[in-house]
Amino acid sequence: MGADFVCAVLFTIGLVLSAVECNCNGHPGERGPPGRDGLAGMKGQKGEPAVWVDGPVDPSMLLRLRGDKGNSGPQGPIGPKGYRGDVGAAGMAGQPGPPGPVGINLNSGQSASNQRTHSAFSVKRNTTRYPPFNQKITYQEAIVNINNNFVINTGIFTCTTPGFYYFTFHSVAKVSMCLGLVKEGEPEKIVFCDENTRNSEQVLSGGVVLELTAGQKVWLESYKDQQQSLQIAKDADARDVREKLIVFNGFLIFSNS
């Protein structure tokens, strides 16, 4: 009987404990702190190539590969001209260039102040008397006389710079006239004539290019034997008071020294 009592007590205690557990539910616990990072894994094995020996081409792998450079395409059309930019700042001065070739001395032994490479004159005669026949015509005024190569009292031009010269003259008169250019040392004379039959004012002009050497002379002469009119005798008379204008010019074209 004592054993049965013990069992009954234990059964009663179990029921009480069972009732207590059913009526007392607990709350979930708080989350614990995060754990530490794990260790690095081992390196993986090398992948397969884009083209297998016994298989097809892998399209995804080919897209990631760089192909060979292709040929250049044709040149496109030229675009429109752009706006002009602002002018930049001046650059630095360059280095001096090499010296030039040695020049040719055309006037050896002469200083610059003694070089006379220019020559020209223009003289005028305006009188009522007819110039003497077959004689050098003299003048009253020198309009231009560079280097004084022309002497108006003698009517002679003397060349100081060898070269080619142009000589010309103009005569205005109401009488018949014959004028000739004379170059020293030349037997032939260049003669120009104008026969005035109307007794009106006429112009007689002439010109020529001559090559002169240093010291050679040129002058203008009046001729009678070249005229065909008898009026020349009358014009030469001292009683003829009509004006007779003569202008004699000459200048150096270029020297050949």
UniProtKB/TrEMBL annotation:
Residues 30-49, 68-120 are annotated as: Disordered. GO terms for cellular component: cell surface; collagen trimer. One of its GO terms (biological process) is innate immune response. It is found in: Cell surface; Secreted, Extracellular space, Extracellular matrix. It holds the Pfam family C1q. SUPFAM superfamilies: TNF-like (SSF49842). It comes from the Eukaryota. Residues 1-18 form the signal peptide. Residues 114-257 form the C1q domain. Residues 105-120 have a biased composition (Polar residues). Keywords: Complement pathway, Disulfide bond, Extracellular matrix, Glycoprotein, Hydroxylation, Immunity, Innate immunity, Repeat, Secreted, Signal. Core component of the complement C1 complex, a calcium-dependent complex composed of 1 molecule of the C1Q subcomplex, 2 molecules of C1R and 2 molecules of C1S. The C1Q subcomplex is composed 18 subunits: 3 chains of C1QA, C1QB, and C1QC trimerize to form 6 collagen-like triple helices connected to six globular ligand-recognition modules (C1q domain). Interacts with CR1 (via Sushi 24 and Sushi 25 domains). Interacts (via C-terminus) with CD33; this interaction activates CD33 inhibitory motifs. PANTHER family: COMPLEMENT C1Q SUBCOMPONENT SUBUNIT A, EMILIN ELASTIN MICROFIBRIL INTERFACE-LOCATED PROTEIN ELASTIN MICROFIBRIL INTERFACER. This is Complement C1q subcomponent subunit A.
